[in-house]
Design goal:
three-stranded antiparallel β-sheet, 1 helix, 71 residues, single chain
Length: 71
């Protein structure tokens, strides 16, 4: 099983998300839970499309970290 990082951002109507490791793979949702589920489906669809076209499936490489700064 592979784990792809997704970035979730609030919008005026809910949330949007994308995966830095999968350019062009994006989704939206009214709630965080909905956008996460939609991204699972979008990633699966995206990877299936790459395989069908004979393209390589990118390995997950992106990670996240927080930086703390004094206030």
């Amino acid at each position: 099983m592979k784990k792809y990082l997704i970035v979730i951002e609030p919008t005026q109507t809910g949330f949007s998300a994308y995966s830095p490791d999968l350019p062009g793979c994006v989704s939206t949702g009214r709630t965080r839970e909905e956008v996460e589920q939609n991204m699972r489906e979008a990633i699966a669809f995206h990877l299936d499309g790459l395989r069908e076209e004979g393209e390589p499936v990118p390995e997950p490489q992106t990670y996240s970290a927080y930086v703390e700064l004094p206030t």
